[in-house]
UniProtKB/TrEMBL annotation:
Gene3D superfamilies: 3.40.50.2300, Winged helix-like DNA-binding domain superfamily/Winged helix DNA-binding domain. InterPro entries: CheY-like_superfamily (IPR011006), Sig_transdc_resp-reg_C-effctor (IPR016032), Sig_transdc_resp-reg_receiver (IPR001789), Tscrpt_reg_LuxR_C (IPR000792), WalR-like (IPR039420), WH-like_DNA-bd_sf (IPR036388). This is Response regulator transcription factor. Keywords: DNA-binding, Phosphoprotein. Coiled coil: none annotated.
Length: 252
């Protein structure tokens, strides 16, 4: 059985890569990307690092020259305008340009890996694996062999469907809240007590208690802790514009 990263038994089939096979490393960690690029070049790959700052321009161009494999991190930090760059969002465009995509991520973002594979990535391998394993996986992909089994692929697609269903349910529940109830919930999430919230909005304590009871009922939860947990779960999901839930509301 392979590990949870999606690597299949094909990993040990170390077929020689075709000389000059193109590989692009898209990662914001310079030491890792440079080390991996050099290791791939020693094996005969035409490997290069694509800086995160240049990804937007690269995706906006028509495909020129031969395509091959992109080794893609999921957490790419922020672009020049301060927007979070989610690697999973790049997979579809890279596939359209003719590139295969292998996720090489340092985190444990199973949601991100599932989204990337659902968008067409061929598999995932953690950065914690040795350079030999990473290079071997690239060789497997370059030879045309799968890096995960059909069962593993279907497993990731099922995870992605479950994650989407959970996110849709959470969004639906939060959409029931009024703008003021969302503000109250955000303040609760930040650790404010009801008395401080009443003072913040210059309203009575009974008013805040009524709002909190309404929040719990609309979210179908039994406690403020559960409501806060739901809000935090939603806030961890960064949309394509890089904005988070609650970013509209600011207070001193």
């Amino acid at each position: 059985m392979s590990d949870a990263t999606g690597l299949g038994p094909q990993l040990e089939r170390r077929r020689p890569a075709a000389s000059g096979y193109p590989v692009l490393v898209i990662d914001d960690h310079e030491l890792f990307s440079t080390s991996l690029t050099m290791a791939l070049r020693r094996e005969g790959f035409d490997a290069h690092t694509l800086p995160v700052a240049d990804v937007h321009d690269f995706l906006g161009r028509e495909a020129v020259g031969p395509t091959g494999l992109v080794l893609l991190d999921l957490d790419l930090g922020q672009d020049a305008e301060g927007h979070y760059v989610n690697g999973a969002d790049l997979v579809s465009r890279l596939r359209t340009l003719g590139w295969k995509v292998l996720v090489v991520s340092g985190g444990t973002d199973r949601r991100g890996v599932a989204a990337a594979i659902a968008s067409g990535a061929i598999g995932s391998v953690p950065k914690s694996r040795s350079l030999d394993v990473l290079v071997g996986t690239v060789k497997t992909a370059a030879s045309g062999d799968p890096v995960m089994t059909d069962a593993e692929h279907q497993g990731w697609l099922e995870r992605h469907r479950r994650y989407l269903a959970q996110e849709q349910d959470l969004s639906r529940r939060l959409s029931r809240l009024s703008p003021r109830e969302l503000e109250v919930l955000e303040l609760l999430t930040e650790g404010m007590r009801a008395a401080a919230i009443a003072e913040h909005f210059v309203v009575s304590m009974p008013t805040v208690r009524t709002q909190i009871r309404s929040i719990l009922a609309k979210l179908a939860v039994g406690s403020q802790l559960e409501a806060v947990a739901l809000f935090r779960q939603q806030a961890e999901t960064v949309d394509r514009s890089g904005r988070r839930v609650g970013s509209q509301h600011r207070h001193e």
